């Protein structure tokens, strides 16, 4: 990133980076807790995720204020400016991951009213583990300044999309088998969709982090993503 | 916004504003076309929305580049800086409205395979009209610098949420009545959810536009929003 005439620009940018890492850890914990709450019908844990979202929002506001103050005070140019703008964008995606985890948590009560078949729980759990691995991975690789790892991580989002399509099909099948499954499965459908969207935000974060670390853009996004519009099982 | 020592800052900010208005008009047209395509099973129109999204993305990139160049070149302080950052945020929300319209368009084929009951079409159409009114409204009120109107518009998002909850219930009912409706209704459920999310992005835009125009934050967000987790009809 080169040297700065004003030494403490890097210190202040470091503080912004640490806030990003804090938000990343909180995002990871919210995703882990919300999916655990969903699969164990744990309303208490779900409630905690809802409260955590307020902390996430506060951290994003703090990061925004710090980043904007940093721009105004230090007037960074080109590359440095892009680093600060990149941090603002990463914070935006992390905040949205928190929102999506909260939305999963808020559906725990509604899903809990029906019993989730074991196979389905297994599929959703395995999708959730994939997503959690991506969230943890992007936070670690950003902290370790591992640009190559971030590029690989972006490519791995495809595994989530494949899993989502399969969960989507499974949910439709359960709904068709027994109309009493429809309400719970509809909420699970939104939960699965939220997990898929969390994966997309991880992709955005990986792209921004790569740019902040290297000053280069990753090659254009691979063709996206929600293939369920085509994945229509015969009714 | 006060006078500037460098006269052309306002000109450059004006260009950024015009890009926001362009993106707003495109967003409005994409929302109108995607819901029309959905309700008329018009695959050609749906395809056009998918192409429009590439234009939207290009405009957002142009706005981002201009805004960041503007900050780097003019080094605006405080209020002016916030105006530019506000524009970057508004562009982000408009781009996401485009994404959501595209997602609706991409579901047109999957929904078209089942016949949508007339009552349901009517409900979705009326939700779409509410959302479209909000999108058009926020673009107009931002262009007219109508801060009071923006505050009112944010409050009006509640009507969309109420409508969404009712469409959600209706869709569950249709699915329960006949399993052959499940596939199409599932896609319609995501379309309705996308419309509700478009409303949320309009709310964000109204808040940012209000801040850019007045330098004041609107009072904290009203309690949010997706009430469907509680709206579970007896199965």
UniProtKB/TrEMBL annotation, chains A, B:
<keyword id="KW-0592">Phosphate transport</keyword>
<keyword id="KW-0813">Transport</keyword>
<comment type="subunit">
    <text>Homodimer.</text>
</comment>
<feature type="domain" description="PhoU">
    <location>
        <begin position="20"/>
        <end position="108"/>
    </location>
</feature>
<dbReference type="Pfam" id="PF01895">
    <property type="entry name" value="PhoU"/>
</dbReference>
<dbReference type="InterPro" id="IPR028366">
    <property type="entry name" value="PhoU"/>
</dbReference>
<feature type="domain" description="PhoU">
    <location>
        <begin position="124"/>
        <end position="208"/>
    </location>
</feature>
<comment type="function">
    <text>Plays a role in the regulation of phosphate uptake.</text>
</comment>
<dbReference type="InterPro" id="IPR026022">
    <property type="entry name" value="PhoU_dom"/>
</dbReference>
<protein>
    <recommendedName>
        <fullName>Phosphate-specific transport system accessory protein PhoU</fullName>
    </recommendedName>
</protein>
<keyword id="KW-0963">Cytoplasm</keyword>
<comment type="similarity">
    <text>Belongs to the PhoU family.</text>
</comment>
<dbReference type="InterPro" id="IPR038078">
    <property type="entry name" value="PhoU-like_sf"/>
</dbReference>
